[in-house]
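Protein Entry — a single chain follows
Next Lines — sequence and tokenised fold
***
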Amino acid sequence: MTEAGLNASVVETVSAWFSSGQVTKAIVIGELALAHNGSEQTYANQSETIRLENFPVLEKVAPNPTFVTQAPSRSGEYSVNLGQISRTAIAFKYQVHLEDANLAAHAPVLITPSWKIEPRQASVIVNYSFNPAFVSPAGRSVTLKNVVVMIHLDSTKAQTCQSKPVGNFAKEKSMIYWKLGEISLDGYSEGSQKLLARFGTESEAKPGSVEARWEITGEAADGLGSGLALSRSGTTKEEGGSDPFADEGTAGGSLGSWKEVKVQRKIMSGKYVAA
């Protein structure tokens, strides 16, 4: 965030729980950070009015009281003390409202494990694919970075593990993981991709869990997530210097003078688990 004036970034964390290839629970939380690049002396006593666009998608929102003040009677509008954000600082933390019927809308990849349990052996096939319920301007495709998939064995210890493709076996944790790096999932032309593992166990295991970690960054993240955006008023004012004769609806800047603030966006996994 190096451009002159007000800069913003959004990081949203998607947690999802899967069962039989379906999302049974999901939570999306986010942080919006601000930075203002300019003369500290010039902006030390100035504030700027900002507006969170697409504000109704938020279920909960908590502004940073150190430098953000809610505008009276105007939902989604706030005053920001510019002198406090010469360095990047978290301005808002929030939770996105999710409808029960659309829990999977923020989950880009489906994970479906299939277990076979034997007295001294546990085998699992992990299918992963593009989630057709994922809301994306790119249609049925998505590119994920820094992808890691982990399989955790439950209720017994793993002594050995064979895998395809070859993964990293952590015997002390009874788990295997794959660092897949960057992957592109295409819901139009591809079926599911597979990871296979076979654990040699001390005793009979129970089906474990599969966890995935991933990120969507840069231009690939544009248009994804909650759609939360930021605008600023065309007027920057001195602290305590608002016009007492201004109309209430225009106190933070003239109507129609809102200007978009470019937002750097990142979407990442939180707890992303299939049982």
